[in-house]
Amino acid sequence: MKRYIYINHDDLAQDLYCDNRISNRKYTLWNFLPKNLWEQFSRFMNQYFLLIACLQLWSLITPVNPASTWGPLIFIFAVSATKEAWDDYNRYLSDKKANEKEVWVVRQGVKKLIQSQDIHVGNIVWLRENDEVPCDLVLLGTADPQGICYVETAALDGETDLKTRVIPSASMGIDFELLHKIKGVIECPSPDKDIRRFDANLRLFPPFLDNDMCPLTIKNTLLQSCYLRNTEWACGVAVYTGNETKLGMSRGIAEPKLTAVDAMIDKLTGAIFVFQIVVVIVLGIAGNIWKNTEAKKQWYVEYPNESPWYELLIIPLRFELLCSIMIPISIKVSLDLVKSLYAKFIDWDDQMVDLETRIRSHATNTAISEDLGQVEYILTDKTGTLTENKMIFKRCCIRGTFYGNENGDALSDAELLNAVSTGSTDVIQFLKVMAICNTVVPIQSNTGVISYKAQSQDEEALVRAAASLHMVFVNKNGNVLEINFNGLLLRYEVLDILEFTSDRKRMSVVVKCCLSGKIYLLSKGADEAILPLARSGQQTRTFSEAVEQYAQLGLRTLCLASRELDDDEYREWSLMFKEANSKLVDREWRVAEVCQRLEHDFEILGVAAIEDRLQDGVPETISTLRKAGINFWMLTGDKQNTAIQIALSCNFVSPEPKGQLLLLSGKTEDEVCRSLERVLLTMRITNTEPKDVAFVVDGWALEIALKHYRKAFTELAILSRTAICCRVTPSQKAQLVELLKSCDYRTLAIGDGGNDVRMIQQADIGVGISGREGLQAARAADYSIGKFRFLTRLILVHGRYSYNRTAFLSQYSFYKSLLICFIQIFFSFISGVSGTSLFNSVSLMAYNVFYTSIPVLVSVLDKDLSENTVMQHPQILFYCQAGRLLNPSTFAGWFGRALFHAIVVFVITIHSFVFEKSEMEEVSMVALSGCIWLQAFVVALETNSFTILQHLAIWGNLVAFYAINLIVSAIPSSEMHTIMFRLCRQPLYWTTIILITMAGMGPVLALKYFRYTYRSSKINILQQAERLGGPILSLGNIESQSRSLEKDISPLSISQPKNRNPVYEPLLSDSPSATRRSIGPGTPFDFFQSQTRLSSTYMRNSKDN
Amino acid sequence: MKEDDPTVLKAEYSPSDGWRLTKIESSPEELTRVDEAEEKFTQQELPACKPILTPGLVITTLISIGIIFVPIGLGSLSASEHVVEIVDRYDDACIPSNGDDEAAKRERLSFIQNAKTNKTCIRNLVVPKKMKHPIHVYYQLDNFYQNHRRYVKSRSDRQYRSPGSEGDTKTCAPESEVDDHRPIVPCGLIAWSLFNDTYGISTKDNPILINKKDIAWPSDKNSKFGSNVYPKNFQKQDPVGGGKLNESLPLSEQEDLLVWMRTAALPNFRKLYGRIETDLEADEKITVVIQNNYNTYSFDSKKQLVLSTTTWIGGKNDFLGKAYISVGGTCLFLAIAFILTYVIKPRPLGDPAYLSWNLNSATR
């Protein structure tokens, strides 16, 4: 499908496409109620409760007052509807703000200030410097005479550098005034989300130009949400508007996230539901049989001889209602409550405050804290997430002299400063290369302060460093560079730029000195790409040593070199270069070849070392989380080399021989397929070896692999604990998340830029770093944190506690519901299977909503292990990841406990209160008290740490139970008038209660003790170690001694779930103190090179980037 | 962190301004105790007591349960032993035919359902041990489902309480009103099936007075049943269920009805008939004159007369004592078992060697 856009045609075809109104809203005022109710009722639990509530309206079958179900139900629904409405209102407000922003648009040939939402396709939009682009535009004119403008695309793809955009050749040179009147047609594809492609044609109508089609590419566009920078004005025609822009299309609707715990609870609920149906059917049949054989004889029941058609259904339905409490309605309320408290704990945490910006961590999504404890894969962005996104020139080695070794900063090294001021030629040449050999754009502000915009952070660092050493890159005027050295203005004309590719690993510029007319080739690049090309006779050993030394320190190194060219040589080469550049086939490769002809016989000038500062604690964080069994994937839009550098320096992958990198690359399907097979093969072999294998893939190969070899790639994804994906687009990031999710892994995506938003929304958990790239990621994310290292705490402390607490709370909720329900079932056996409720409405409602909810709610304060212990033994997270604390078998334990306790309560009650004491209300109250006592002790037994609040809630609840019942007993009209007073006076009551409690808890205590001591889990051992004091100290020592480099191959007592690859062993248990042992460019790590010839073709082909 | 600089910034999101940093002022000196407590709560660092199940703790607990429970059990067993109880099943003896065949059953039914037959029946009982007053006289019904759903719900407390709610008989079906739609007071199946056997007890020489005052719960008399609600249209129409009521007495004084209307949760139950305020000597022969009116013959049931003394745990009931002794015994047994395992196979608590990740590296 194509769309044709008529430029500046106010009355033509405007209605065909939507206006520029952005809408992220889910509801409108009118559809809110039905839509919201529909959504709420699409959950099984809600349907169930609604059904029960409706059945209860039929008084023939209801055992209790219908209000006991309707009240909580309406309350629950009101709460979640209000929450939804509030969120949607906020979305509406932010949309409105964006929509009502004012922009200059040409209307009837005149520029007018209109609201952003009124822009239509075909309108010409005028932007000024630092304006945000309101919709996708095709550039028509800029202030720059050459038709260039600069945009910042951080919001779109997360890259902070400035990008150049040019106007299409057709509109080149059109006068400012005439731009208002320009007419034409653009043929472009229907809206899509590909932010790297825009294949369209432009034809201007006379009188502007001839009828030639002018091709348009992404280079000619200004996309929504970018910022116009460093350009006075620009104008363009709107091609995509509103939600149809590239950004709008890639903005997926954030689906509500469901945690694994929630899914498990739903599953268990389903199981209970099936169980309930079975019980109902069995009891229903039994009830009908009993009615027909026994009850008909019992004259006092006075069963009518004729019965309505639904007679047979009545008893089963009564049991259905009686058993409906098996699925506790309170569980949803309790879970929502505790979940918001987990989120609050994250917000409150003082240890997760970014000390520099003083920004607190924030949980936007309050519903998914448990998932943090179950994370298996972390997919992380690189720039700004792992690194601080600040490159700083630290040291250098010029002609064998090391600068900056003493104080760690060459810029303040007196020796170097001295050399600069004395005018040492070597140093000056070195500085010149630093200042010139780049693609940096200097921007001089009104106050005269020069700032640099660079595609590469390395280049920016070098230029800055040169500037502070008095070699200031002042201005770039077309091809002429101006450099101010100690007040002396030097001018160079850039003749050619030999661009950087990851294959060449170097870039060069050919410049002509305007003063002397001499032509120089200036190069910089990785050591292995420069040093071998030194002129014969130059010793490069000192440089190699320097590189080695810097790499040891974790610095990125660049070798700088230069060569003076003959005019003839250059002219000859220049022709070849032009020819290669205009080739249509294999251009990259040819250009590289031509470049090589010039880049030889270098005069090596020196080595510059740049620090790409990792964020604080990144290596430690990664190694700790690795130990906790979490796999890391790095997804970055950056170049392969840079990605690998960072990966090495932050413990992401290990250097040889411990680690191995497998390269997955290729340009065509075949190549990718072969590469994939090879990588897989190696992966399968090495999987049994204690080796840290990671695969590296670039965006192109990934695209093919995902499209055609999804299965093989999925297998690779499962086998590999580490992956580096470079040059991936935002939607590819999201696809990778999707892939891992489809393998049933819990994924956490962390990033900081707008390009991470989709991945963050796609992942089970999205974490945004509120960093330098703005707050888009933080806003889209479920959690926003200030620094990468807070991730440890977020997962190990908050995630783990949340999981543990929810696991207990949910199972306990089922336990207490089952307990009372079993008693009801047992009672039906002695009440003629007629569906009589032993408990009255008040007790039943209060039991579920009040007596049993409050003690368990304080379990949000429970800590099974102290935070320090968990941090020391991150492996313990395995229990959460594998879902050890909430699964069908633990649930069976609680089910059994409920059954056992129900038997205890029921048997003891009906045998103690026999004959003349078997009054209904009394028996019911004894059984209820028994349940309350038991549940108080169950909570107490399962609590690991008692704070004052827990004591208050557990024991206070018992007191409250008596207080409430005494009050109710004092009301004459209540069914249980005076019951509690009568009971409390009887010694029999108290002896019965004590008996129930002890008979119920004794075996549970004994069993728990036995398992705790003789079948103890790792959690138990750590608890014992932590609380008995002694061994915990030695524990730390053992831990530090036992940093095994190898994989845990032993038959672990902990078995792996789902037969996955080991997620648990501390593969990379590197000492956390040994940080940043990184490796500079050229330090050997093993790319998969077994078929050298083949892979060299890949290398050649992968140059395109 | 707070010590360096007491101000903390908080990032807040508002739809109008986006993200914004707010300063939260707090100074350590100004922290009150409440703030401190709040701080500890928000940081999840409230002081906590963290008990663990050490052998000492568990074994002590089990032993103390055992030591406390066994004596209590013995105590309640002996209390139960001291209760003197006479139980006499009379339903099969006070009926002319006792066969099992259908004819006998029909005969029994027609006997009991005929209002005209003489249903007086005389039982001779012997007091096994001296019974001190008060001696409670109960009737016991077995296999009688007062807890049947249809039965237990068929009542109207509002009607019983006040004369104004006379017509409030919705819940009483099928015994809510007579044919001409006048309400039955008291309505409902429970009242309608009122037990109506009577007992007269005498020794050789003189009758023993059975005191029928105050057999119902005081609360029932005072508030649950109105003192100005009189029976109306009760048992006036077929089918006639159980006993009839004296229409000149208000419901609150019909104590037999009040006792009956306290429905039993179990199918075998006793209800208080009256009290004997004199002692009965051992081996004394007593004669009971029973009016066997109540129909339990249409279903498989028993009627028994019970004379019983009481102690602190109530009537005769060995269950509690036995249960206490067995729970106590079990706890003692478990304690001993745990002590033995502890001695034979001690296992240090919290030994890091048991951690699998240490286990592996240690062996390497």
TrEMBL record, chain A:
Its EC number is 7.6.2.1. It catalyses: ATP + H2O + phospholipidSide 1 = ADP + phosphate + phospholipidSide 2. The chain crosses the membrane at residues 44-61, 268-290, 818-838, 844-861, 891-911, 923-941, 948-968, 988-1010. Coiled coil: none annotated. It is a multi-pass membrane protein. It is an enzyme of class 7 (translocase). Belongs to the cation transport ATPase (P-type) (TC 3.A.3) family. Type IV subfamily. This is Phospholipid-transporting ATPase.
From TrEMBL, chain B:
Its main location: membrane. GO terms for cellular component: endoplasmic reticulum; Golgi apparatus; plasma membrane. The keyword Metal-binding does not apply. Keywords: Membrane, Transmembrane, Transmembrane helix. InterPro entries: CDC50/LEM3_fam. Residues 154-177 are annotated as: Disordered. Pfam families: CDC50 (PF03381). The chain crosses the membrane at residues 52-74, 323-344. It is found in: Membrane. The keyword Transmembrane helix applies. PANTHER family: ALA-INTERACTING SUBUNIT, CELL CYCLE CONTROL PROTEIN 50. This is ALA-interacting subunit. It comes from Olea europaea subsp. europaea.
